[in-house]
Amino acid sequence: MHHISDEQRRIRLARRHLLTPALRTDSPVAVADAVVALHATDAATVFLSVCARLRTPNVAAVEKPLYEDVSLVRLLSMRNTLFTVSEALAPQVEASNARAVAAKERRTFLKHLAEDGKGLDERWLNDTEEAALAALTARGTATGSELSAAVPALRTKITVFPGKKYEAEQGVASRVIRVLAAEGRIRRDRPRGSWTSSQFRWTAAEPRPVLATAEAQAELALRWLRSYGPASEADLKWWTGWGLGQVRKALAAVEAEEVRLDDGSTAWVAPGDTAFEPAPEPWAALLPALDPSAMGWADRGFHLAAEHRAALFDRSGNIGPTVWWNGRIVGGWAQHANGEPVWRLLTDTGLDATAAIEEEASRLAGWVGEARITPRFRTPLERELTT
Questions:
Q1: Cα–chain-centroid distance for residue 301?
Q2: How many folded domains does the chain comprise?
Q3: Is 197 a domain residue?
Q4: DSSP element (H, E) containing 38
């Protein structure tokens, strides 16, 4: 069985995730494909992750594929989480994950409607959705509030979890919009405010090809192995949110190759992907909260020391902004109130690393400009650095 060392895993990460200066690109779509999918729960993360890998980072370069030619699309998909993927990969992600997520969103919402006791049923929901789509088509784009003003049914309120201690009254507009977006019938357009805002406008979406689930899962698994392999079944199961049976079927379908890691465990790579790779030039990176390079595996031991987890993760397992040196997470960063990036190393990396990290911090400050970034998921070190 072929052996792939932890050092080789770090080299692969650097090359395949476009993290060294020599491998940076001019294409945000190429960045998305290199990491398969960009975390998009926090709007700023997409911009920060992409620009860390662009030769010339700037906001407009990311806005164009998101809102003009729509070559990048947001999908509620893996682990019921919002991701941004290339339009070319979107049908596979939709079939392998997003379709099931959308079906669950609809079932859950219909259950809440039934429990409310006002007689709101599937027919009412269908009629409300059609009215919302008609209003959106007529306007071109609209915020949730603007749609509610145009469609009276969206101003309906229901009681969720009636009789429970956490019973609450909720408006239906956000739930209707969430279902329509999950099903790919509408998409997020430019936000109100700056690129860091999550208050999106909405617009109608073009339908995508309908693919078979098993074939789509195999293709997604292969793409993921090429970007993240070697990785274990547990890693792929965690990243996709699939059941273990689905993971094993997908690995078998692509004829994934088993390899041995430094700790003696086994993992998987894409067929034939076992060649030795030379180390790139030394590199540093400041990556945002939830960046794919930090969130791609369940077991991150090859690039993250266990003793650093408490400072860099929140209680739900979300990683905050990280500082990297030659394939390892060595610290964290935040944005000071004056806009400057501030960072702290959690391990001694030497003067060369410090100089490279300072250069990356200056590069980040240069394109972020006057924008202020507060991660949605705050971590202990990020909070400490901002205060």
A1: 21
A2: 1
A3: yes
A4: strand 38-39
pLDDT-derived band at 163 (thresholds 50, 70, 90) equals confident
Nearest to 9 by CA among 225, 220, 217: 225
Q: What is the CATH number of the domain that holds 191?
A: 1.10.10
Please indicate, yes or no, if residue 359 is contained in any of the structural domains.
no
Q: Give the separation between CA 260 and CA 280, rounded to whole angstroms.
A: 23
Rounded to whole angstroms, how far apart are CA atoms 372 and 115? 42
The helix or strand, by DSSP H or E, that contains position 352, with its residue range, turns out to be helix 351-368
Query: What confidence tens digit (pLDDT) does each residue in 102-120 have?
Result: 999 999 999 999 999 889 9
Tell me the residue ranges of DSSP E strands in 234-362.
257-260, 266-269, 284-287, 322-325, 328-335, 341-345
Whole-structure pTM value: 0.95
Question: What b/e readout covers 353-364, taking b as 16+ CB neighbours within 10 angstroms?
Answer: beebbeebbebb
Residue with tokens 């975390």: 39
Residue 212 lies in a domain: no
Mean pLDDT (the chain, rounded): 96
In a domain, 135, yes or no: yes
What range does the domain containing 187 cover?
90-204
Which pLDDT does position 120 carry in this prediction? Answer: 94
**What is the pLDDT, as a whole number, of residue 40?**
96
Q: Which amino acid is at 88?
A: A
